[in-house]
Specification:
By secondary structure, the chain is α/β, with parallel strands linked by helices. It folds into two domains: about 1-100 and about 145-190, Peptidoglycan recognition protein-like (Lysozyme-like); about 105-140, no CATH class. Helix content is about 20%, strand content about 30%. It has helices spanning about 40-50, 145-160, 170, 185-190, and strands at about 1-5, 5-10, 15, 30-35, 60, 65-70, 85, 90, 95-100, 105-110, 110-115, 120, 125-130, 135-140, 165. The strands form four sheets. A six-stranded mixed sheet has the order 3-6-5-9-4-15, sandwiched between helices. α2 (about 145-160) crosses α4.
């Protein structure tokens, strides 16, 4: 995997058309990890690319490890909203936004787990944690998706002065993503290899 003209080049990368009018990023030193909260990677990428939506991201990584690139890395994406990091406001101004195909929080109904859009999630894709003395359920992240994210982050670190890799919830109090199911320790261990 390489970066050429601010775009990823690899067999598992598909470039998509996103015609959002945005400015160039003067500096890119942060990667922000999100979950899509959507049905699948392609539907989420298509939504983020639509001209009539105010949000965007640089990449969407599917559960299979396929990568969809919406914007070049030198163009500002609208993924962080009201946010701050290390005393700097508007994290969109200095970051790359990566969306992971993941439904986020789940709810239990009978013996099953369901997304907010009523898709049933199989038990082997459910991460359970306890919050405030109560079980909480989240869509898990498959290994192949985390490995693709690690590979992307390595390549970005080689090509840009990346100093921070954070979750959306680290830069604003109004968001939960990538959520408690995201394997931060494993991610950092793989990134060091």
């Amino acid at each position: 995997m390489e970066v050429e003209n601010h775009k990823l080049v690899a067999p598992n990368v598909k470039q998509m058309h996103c015609n959002k009018k945005s400015s160039l990023l003067p500096v890119t030193d942060t990667i922000v990890i999100h979950y899509t909260g959507g049905g699948n990677a392609m539907s989420s990428a298509q939504l983020l690319a639509r001209a009539d939506t105010s949000v965007s991201a640089h990449l969407v990584i599917a559960r299979s490890g396929q990568i969809l690139q919406l914007l070049p890395f030198n163009v500002k994406a609208w993924h962080a909203g009201y946010s701050s990091l290390e005393g700097r406001q508007n994290v969109n101004n200095f970051s790359i936004g990566i969306e992971l195909d993941n439904a986020g929080p789940l709810h239990r109904r009978g013996q099953g787990w369901f997304t907010w859009f009523n898709k049933q999630i199989m038990p082997d894709e459910v991460f359970t944690t306890v919050e405030k003395g109560r079980a909480s359920y989240w869509h898990s992240y498959p290994s192949v998706q985390i490995e693709a994210l690690v590979e992307v982050c390595r390549v970005l670190k080689r090509n840009y002065p990346i100093r921070y890799i954070v979750g959306h919830s680290d830069i604003t109090s109004r968001k939960l993503d990538p959520g408690p199911a995201f394997p931060w320790e494993r991610f950092h261990d793989l990134l060091k290899e």
